[in-house]
């Protein structure tokens, strides 16, 4: 049976070049980067070279990169760090209703500490409205935290406009760019980004390593205490193999990004066209144009997403119905609900996220088996017989044939 991996937003395989380099720093060059002897200096040199490569990927300076364990830690450091360091200036934070839980739960925690948080709504494509953001700003606003691209539906936010607005108002701007780094061009200077989150395992490095970009001059407090690692911003012995691997992955991403974007975007568009042409009662979720190159999310009416995933898995296809961090939850996606989908429609969602090693043959196979699975599941649904009478609350605006919804 074929084994096809269409879940790259959950995690990516470690690139072989990355894995080989990491192994070298786990076995032969295993020194502690804080040690002063030769083994330590060798590890420190490799770590600083990796810092340069990660910085280059987003057009930052090396000393603006803080290595850590990944996206969740980066989001916590960025948001709590700015909040606690700037509390005398204000206590208001602006974010969105579709953030990853690493941002949402951090903001909820800060609300218990006396901060106020505005959660911006989004439109039917998961896009914020700049007018809503402008109206939300007060003289107490110290931070805007808005994700670069949504992890479930792939919508890319108007980052440049947000950054410009934040700069004009003297407010720090943080973006969780976990899904975009390594897959989409990012220039923190051009986009006026003050803090940016990335995670290695989302772009072919290992799990357990990531980085936070903090623009020089941003006032931020440490939230983890111990030794003086990472300029006193992240205590703990550095994960040298992971960091070296992250640097290598960044180097490869810079080298191959244009080629990868063209490749996965072609596969993405083939999936979208195939589903909308072959199947009825489906809705493309996310922005039809401003979306990640390899991200597809559809709702299939009258079926349940978990059943669809299990049946695809039996055919050797790995996909998801939303964020891997909430895969054990029975609740529908908070992202899809924020976009205006009903619980029933949100429960029938499928997320397909493509990577550099996926092929056109794999897409063809997926488009062959998917309609059969959906039709079989719908045949068991008591609602499907009344499909002609179904009136969705928000009919599809991203397809030419509205009967798709």
Termini separation comes to 32 Å
Global Rg: 22 Å
The CATH architecture category of the largest domain equals 3-Layer(aba) Sandwich
Total of domains = 2
Name the poorly predicted regions: 388-405
| Tally of separate helices | 12
Q: Which strand order does the major sheet show?
A: 2-8-7-6-5-3-4
Percent of residues in beta strands?
A: 5-15%
Structural class: alpha/beta
The count of β-strands is 12
Compute the average pLDDT. 93
CATH class of the largest domain: Alpha Beta
Oligomer: single chain
Reading the helices and strands in chain order gives: EHHEHEHEHEHEEEHHEEHEHHEH
Within CATH, the superfamily of the largest domain carries the name Type I PLP-dependent aspartate aminotransferase-like (Major domain)
CATH fold name of the largest domain, please?
A: Aspartate Aminotransferase, domain 2
Described by the principal axes of the CA atoms, the overall outline is globular
How does the major sheet shape up? Answer: 7 strands, mixed
Helix content: 25-40%
Describe the structure.
The chain is α/β, with parallel strands linked by helices. The protein folds into 2 domains: 4-9 and 257-404, Alpha-Beta Complex (Aspartate Aminotransferase, domain 1), CATH 3.90.1150; 16-254, 3-Layer(aba) Sandwich (Aspartate Aminotransferase, domain 2), CATH 3.40.640.10. The chain is built from 12 helices and 12 strands. It has helices at residues 16-27, 38-57, 71-85, 101-112, 130-136, 159-169, 229-232, 240-278, 305-314, 334-338, 343-347, 360-379; strands at residues 4-5, 65-68, 92-96, 116-120, 141-145, 172-176, 195-199, 210-214, 282-284, 295-300, 317-318, 349-353. A 7-stranded mixed sheet has the order 2-8-7-6-5-3-4, sandwiched between helices. Helix 1 (16-27) runs antiparallel to helix 8. The longest helix has 39 residues, at 240-278. It starts with a strand and ends in a 26-residue tail after the last helix. Mean pLDDT is 93; it is low at 388-405.
């Amino acid at each position: 049976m074929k084994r096809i991996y269409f879940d790259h937003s959950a995690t990516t395989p470690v690139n072989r070049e990355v894995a080989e380099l990491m192994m070298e720093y786990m076995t032969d060059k295993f020194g502690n980067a804080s040690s002063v002897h030769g083994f330590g200096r060798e590890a420190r040199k490799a770590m600083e070279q990796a810092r340069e490569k990660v910085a280059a990927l987003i057009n930052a300076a090396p000393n603006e990169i803080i290595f850590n364990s990944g996206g969740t830690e980066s989001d916590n450091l960025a948001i709590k760090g700015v909040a606690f360091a700037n509390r005398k200036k204000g206590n208001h934070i602006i974010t969105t209703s579709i953030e990853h839980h690493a941002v949402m739960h951090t903001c909820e925690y800060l609300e218990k500490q006396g901060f106020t948080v505005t959660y911006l709504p989004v439109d039917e494509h998961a896009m914020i409205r700049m007018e809503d953001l402008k109206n939300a700003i007060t003289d107490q606003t110290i931070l805007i935290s808005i994700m670069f691209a949504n992890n479930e539906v792939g919508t890319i936010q108007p980052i440049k406009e947000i950054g410009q607005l934040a700069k004009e108002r003297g407010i720090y701007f943080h973006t969780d760019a976990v899904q975009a780094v390594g897959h989409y061009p990012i220039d923190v200077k051009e986009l006026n980004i003050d803090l940016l989150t990335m995670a290695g395992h989302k772009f072919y490095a290992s799990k357990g390593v990531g980085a936070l970009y903090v623009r020089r001059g941003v006032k931020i407090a440490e939230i983890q205490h111990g030794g003086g690692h990472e300029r006193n911003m992240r205590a703990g012995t550095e994960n040298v193999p992971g960091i070296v691997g992250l640097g290598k992955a960044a180097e490869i991403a810079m080298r191959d990004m244009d080629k990868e974007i063209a490749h996965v975007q072609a596969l993405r568009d083939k999936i979208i066209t195939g589903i909308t042409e072959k199947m009825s009662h489906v809705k493309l979720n996310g922005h039809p144009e401003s979306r990640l190159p390899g991200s597809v999310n559809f709702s299939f009416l009258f079926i349940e997403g978990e059943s669809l995933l299990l049946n695809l898995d039996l055919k050797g296809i790995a996909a998801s119905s939303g964020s891997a961090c909430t895969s054990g939850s029975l609740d529908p996606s908070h992202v899809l609900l924020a976009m205006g989908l009903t619980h029933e429609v949100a429960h029938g969602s499928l997320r397909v996220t493509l990577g550099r090693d996926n092929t056109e043959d794999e897409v063809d196979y997926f488009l062959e088996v998917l309609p059969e699975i959906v039709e079989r599941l719908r045949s068991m649904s008591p609602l499907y017989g009344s499909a002609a009478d179904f009136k969705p609350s928000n009919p599809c605006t991203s397809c030419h044939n509205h009967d798709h919804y």
